[in-house]
Structure formats: C-alpha cells, structure tokens
Amino acid sequence: MPRRDTDTGAGRKEASTEPSDDGTLGGLRRTETIADLVDFAAVRRDLPDEWDVRPDLVQFGPEPLSETIRFRRTLADPQLVLKPVDDSDPGHNITFYERAGPRAARERTRTVDSLSEAVRVATNRIHQLD
Questions:
Q1: What percent of the chain has pLDDT over 90?
Q2: C-alpha dihedral over 118, 120, 126, 130, to 10 degrees?
Q3: Which candidate in 15, 16, 79, 103 could, as Cys together with 72 as Cys, close a disulfide (CB 3.0–4.6 Å)?
Q4: Which H helix or E strand runs over 127?
Q5: Largest CA distance in the chain
Q6: What do you get for the CA distance between the two ends of the chain, in Å?
Q7: What pLDDT does 18 receive?
Q8: Do 81 and 121 contact (CB within 8 A), yes or no?
C-alpha cells in the first residue's frame, strides 16, 4: 500500500496508508509457518502430564520475530523451543533450543533435518526431564 502524507491542519502532516488501486488484498499470499505443520493435539498426547506445546513468537537477538514451537510445563521449569533455520521452509532444518529456567539463557543444542525429527527429539528430552 502506498504511503502518503496527509495534511491534518495547523501545518502538520501525518503519514497515511491507502489501499491499492483496486482496493483488494489480491497481491498478498498466505505463508505456511511451523505451527501450520504441527498437530498439537497429537504431540500433547505423547507428553507427560502438565507439559504443554504451543506456537510462540520469539525474537532471537537482532533478527525479526520468528514463529516457533515451545514446550513447557511451568514458567519455572525448563522449556524447549523449535525454530526453523529458514522461516520460509518451516518443515526442514529445525534448530533445537533449551532453556534451563526463567533466568537462564536460551542455549542452542542442535539442528535436525526435519520438523518431525525435531518434535521426536523434544518429546524424548521432555521425558528425560520429567
């Protein structure tokens, strides 16, 4: 959408966003994310009681926000995060992060070839922690 300065009176101008010429969102396309590829109910069935898995938006340093998959029991417990190396290819090359507690830094532990393998690794690790 083009941005234009609009005169608001008293000599002030504000930026405004106007729709495209045809007024539609036709130029936009849906992008598949890591959360689109995970059956959360099926994964939860494989987790010990009290553990949860859900999508989360996380910022890694100066990078833009990334959609991830987060496994957690409580805020005080360890958490595991799965993040695609390339957000445009969420089913492949998944980096596995572990955080020991709320004050601990997130630590990258490995990268695996596929999302299904990453979910298996996370589930196995949770059973070790439980």
A1: 59
A2: -170
A3: 79
A4: helix 115-129
A5: 66
A6: 50
A7: 52
A8: no
* Residue 73 half-sphere exposure toward CB, CA atoms < 13 A: 17
Cβ atoms < 10 Å from Cβ of 68 = 24
Tokens (6 digits) for 75: 């805020």
3-state SS assignment for residue 129: helix
Q: Among all chains, which residue has been given the structure tokens 């980096």?
A: 95
Distance CA 102, CA 2 (A): 43
Which residue did the predictor score with more confidence, 108 or 14? Answer: 108
Specify the residue for token string 């695996």: 112
Q: Where are the beta strands (DSSP E) in the chain?
A: 3-9, 12-17, 52-58, 66-72, 79-84, 92-99, 107-114
